[in-house]
Amino acid sequence: GTSANIFSIQTRRLQRALAKHFRFVFVDAPFECPAGPGVLPFFEGMGPYKRWINADGDDEGKVRPLLRKTMAEDGGNFVGVLGFSQGARLALGLLHEQQDRHPEAFKFGFGVFICGTYPPLGLSSSLFPATPTAQFESQGWEDRHESVIDIPSIHVVGNKDPFSYKSRLLVRCSKPSSATVMEFNMGHHLPSIPADTLRLADGIIRLHDRRQRELGAQQAVRSEKRSSMVEVVEIAVQA
Which one of 86, 155, 194, 215 has the largest count of C-beta atoms within 10 Å of its C-beta? Predict the structure, then answer.
């Protein structure tokens, strides 16, 4: 496990690179646990450490209300979601819900998954089985969830990360046309070399710009359809 405060420290280089474009909002996962890989000894004494997976039978309904509360209190316009390791599992699960038009889904324009593990963590049992074990054992799980997400995304893979094979499995959940894969010479952590951080930051900016263009085009199509409908109604009334 880790914490919102720790992740804020870990992403400080990326935050500086994106300061003119985005504001980062961090949220603590609801379930306490021991410190995760790479957290100690640097973040010794910065607990409690938290995780998104409920392994002790607590109320799994804590996650969605926690996210909604954080977003409502911030009052901002959340354009994207970013997650690291287990957090990337949750972030991709949220996009999966959005793609599936789940009634309680959040609305994000893009996702960034850094050293993500696998499988995605869903908040809806209709998309994902309730437990990690069941997710792996569910017959045909990979086939049902491969190449289904077309929301723009960036997948960061560390070629020295012992969990890199899981990061590559996570990529398979997105359509190839919507996913950008960035591979860095690093382990299970965020990019630390300035050039790598700038490359990721530039990719995020381009991702957001691409999504804005897509949304603008969709809005233009909807406006054109509404105009056509108005014209038809006017003609009908005049007749």
Answer: 155
Residue 74: which residues within 8 A CB-CB, separation 6 or more?
A: 25
Q: What is the dihedral of CA 38, 123, 133, 51, to 10 degrees?
A: 20
Pairing of strands 31-33, 49-51: antiparallel
Question: In whole angstroms, what separates CA 101 from the centre of its chain?
Answer: 16
Catalytic residues: 85, 161, 188
Residue 116 · residue 85 · CB < 8 Å? yes
DSSP readout, 108-131? -SEEEEES--SS---S-TTTS-SS
End-to-end CA separation in angstroms for the chain = 69
Q: Cis omega (within 30 of 0) on the bond before 176?
A: no
Q: Is the dihedral of CA 215, 105, 189, 28 positive or negative?
A: positive
Helix (H, G, I), strand (E, B) or coil at 3: coil
pLDDT in tens, the chain (239 residues): 899 999 999 999 999 999 999 999 999 999 998 998 888 888 988 989 999 887 665 555 788 889 999 999 988 789 999 999 999 999 999 999 898 888 788 989 999 999 999 888 877 654 544 444 444 444 444 555 566 889 999 999 999 999 999 999 999 999 999 999 999 999 999 999 999 999 999 999 999 998 888 877 777 766 665 555 565 665 554 43
The three-class DSSP label of residue 84 is strand
Do you know the residue count of the chain? 239
Element (H, E) at 156: strand 153-158
DSSP structure class, residue 184: E
Q: How far apart are CA 21 and CA 18, in angstroms?
A: 5
